[in-house]
Write a structure and sequence with these properties.
By secondary structure, the chain is an all-alpha fold. It is 70% helix and 0% strand. It has a domain at 119-335: MetI-like (MetI-like fold, Orthogonal Bundle).
Length: 342
């Protein structure tokens, strides 16, 4: 009951946040960058006639007023048959804001401006390839980072810890693009172990995702291991650890039974918030490896200046981020019974 009340309250909090994101996105796309400017960018800056601009706007529904259509025919009153007879639904719904931005609240993303494809359908089709890469990266990476961090914390102030920290700093200092290009050259081009790019469906998909997953885990091992090592070392210095050792518990049991459990709160903060990226995909990985996921979909939309797709992905990212924050708070109660949802 408490969880249900908390979720309902957070959902109510999310409404004004999403409205604010929607309004800011709308202002950036339509006030800073007007439909006329969008038409010129799509048609080309040189020798664009006003007739061509107007035709482009009519074909895509950008020829309507922004927020209020004073010239719309009133057929349905806004608040009933007797209230405000001069203000009708058409004056608010027959606008660019309602058709292009407000409709995203019920996940009606419209169609892409370049090829006219349904954006919601494209998101459903591309979500699978994105999850095929991001879920293994998430699970394998989390297990790898925490394991390495626990090993360094267990051998703290020794040569194992020193060498591990040096390797982590070295891994952090190398650009992520170096891992991608180096991995493609060594694993795919030189050794011919896996395809250099592309994507396959079914059981054959593993050949295309194993290299991106390995590169993503390797690229994040330095920063994440150092972060979790710091968290675990902070827990090791607390009083309950010294008490557990005084009772005769081994260092291994103290580390895995107590330190790991009590250090889950900051770990969950870092992990659960990253869950929305599982659905949006990795922009860099999908672009370099030719994976037809949501990340490459967003990059293609930015490159081709498809504003409908970019708006949809921004809104979807905001929704998933709010869901991630809610999951974070709920996971706190599972990791630490002292935390209560208020």
């Amino acid at each position: 009951m408490i969880v249900a009340a908390y979720l309902l309250r957070r959902l109510l909090y999310a409404i004004p946040i999403l409205i604010g994101v929607n309004l800011i996105t709308f202002a950036l796309f339509f006030f800073v960058n007007s439909p006329d400017d969008m038409a010129r960018m799509q048609l080309g800056q040189k020798r664009v006639t006003p007739e061509a601009i107007q035709r482009w706007k009519q074909e895509r529904g950008y020829d309507k007023p922004m927020l209020f259509n004073a010239g719309a025919k009133c057929e349905r009153p806004l608040l009933g048959w007797s209230a405000l007879p001069k203000l009708c639904q058409e004056k608010l719904t027959d606008t660019i804001f309602f058709e292009k931005s407000a409709s995203m609240f019920w996940f009606d993303f419209g169609v892409a401006e370049i090829d006219g494809r349904d954006i919601a359908r494209e998101i459903k089709l591309r979500m699978g390839p994105s999850l095929a890469v991001t879920i293994p990266v998430f699970l394998i990476g989390l297990l790898t980072f925490i394991t390495f961090a626990l090993i360094l914390a267990f051998f703290r102030a020794t040569y194992v810890d020193f060498v591990g920290v040096v390797l982590c700093v070295t891994a952090m200092s190398i650009s992520f693009l170096f891992y991608i290009i180096g991995g493609q050259w060594l694993i795919s081009k030189l050794w011919h172990l896996v395809p250099i790019s592309g994507f396959g469906y079914g059981f054959d998909a593993w050949r295309f995702v194993v290299l991106p997953v390995a590169i993503a885990v390797l690229g994040g091992v330095g920063a994440s291991t150092r972060l979790y090592r710091t968290l675990f070392l902070e827990e090791i210095g607390k009083d309950y650890v010294r008490t557990a050792r005084a009772k005769g518990l081994t260092d291994t049991r103290v580390l895995f039974r107590h330190v790991l459990h009590n250090g889950l709160i900051p770990v969950l903060t870092n992990v659960v918030v990253a869950i929305p990226m599982l659905f949006i995909g990795s922009l860099v990985l999908e672009s370099f490896f030719g994976i037809p996921g949501l990340g490459s979909y967003t990059i293609e939309a930015i490159r081709s200046q498809d504003f409908s797709v970019v708006r949809a992905m921004v809104f979807l990212g905001a929704v998933l981020y709010i869901v991630g924050l809610m999951l974070t708070d709920i996971s706190y109660t599972l990791a630490d019974p002292r935390v209560r949802l208020q």
